């Protein structure tokens, strides 16, 4: 049977895993959301508004200003408002650091962990869906699309420069200072690479081809192993989750911090505004992969499709969502800006 959405009133503090063994949650970290007396069922958005998520490095000055303003307002919401930025960050911590158990599925002793399995893509898609709508509602712009960090194209391979402006709400002091303007290493394994920028770009493009095409020839390879009620997500993450997803987290995380905060650890990753743009691009890879045709299709196992989660929406309602409802971004009212995909055209 499928993993059932957690009962958030049973949320606890049970710090567990990080992106890397040894990177742990500080004891007592509380990432539980405010409780809610009712849960609503998800409704697809009305189709009169559509959001196009833009490439982060191509934003116009006015789009950057609107993005900063939305984040600023999100950070200024009362601390116990589920739309508040830190509350949004806590969602990641709660679903990834053992705050929830599978009690709703009848397994109160088994934690919920949405990484390293087929839940990785759908969970993060739903997470961003609500996050994006909250941002749009805070600036009264229902067309606001969450920018994607386009690290798979040469011009997008650095942290978009406006994230480094310390006076803006997008800023986060806990990032690797050596990498603020450097070319990202999509295969980062904890050791700074010695290669030239040009070589890094070439390596990154081959990693993209390898992880999205060569190593993801069927749904299990792309999405990751099965994860059903009662099981621990031990089957392993999908190709893109393993790389470049996790290397980018670790590459941005701050080595001066004990646990690679912010991006380098599950509990703190959502505290960096860059997290959501990183995941916007990860989510875009799901859409791109499906355009390859053939076996590049969503998993059809009912336990996958019927997995549920809960999130707060832009009206502070707690909403129950199912994996089966997030498979087509058009139905969710968004798509990605069409940009060149240099690694897809030719095998490196
Ligand atoms: Cu939930 Cu990028 O991890």
Q: Count the beta strands.
A: 7
Largest sheet: 3 strands, mixed
Unreliable stretches covering 5 or more consecutive residues: 15-23
- CATH C-level class is Mainly Alpha
Order of helices and strands: EEHHEEHHHHHHHEEEH
- Looking at CATH, which topology would you report? di-copper center containing domain from catechol oxidase
Total number of distinct structural domains: 1
What structural class do helix, strand and pairing data support? mainly alpha
Radius of gyration: 19 Å
Order of strands across the biggest sheet? Answer: 1-6-5
Estimated helix fraction: 25-40%
Corresponding CATH superfamily: Di-copper center containing domain from catechol oxidase
Taking the alpha carbons of the first and last residues, their distance comes to 41 Å
Overall 3D form? globular
Strand content: 5-15%
Whole-number average pLDDT? 93
Q: Give me the CATH architecture, please.
A: Orthogonal Bundle
Small molecules bound: CU-O-CU linkage
Question: How is this structure best described in words?
Answer:
The chain is mainly α and 348 residues long. It is 32% helix and 7% strand. The chain is built from ten helices and seven strands. The protein has helices at 61-76, 85-96, 120-138, 197-214, 219-223, 239-252, 266-269, 274-290, 302-305, 342-345; strands at residues 39-41, 51-53, 101-102, 107-111, 308-312, 318-322, 334-336. The protein has a three-stranded mixed β-sheet with strand order 1-6-5, with helices on one face. A two-stranded parallel ribbon has the order 2-7. The protein is globular and about 55 Å long. Bound molecules: CU-O-CU linkage. CU-O-CU linkage binds next to helix 2 and helix 6. CU-O-CU linkage binds at residues 92, 96, 115, 124, 245, 249, 269, 279.
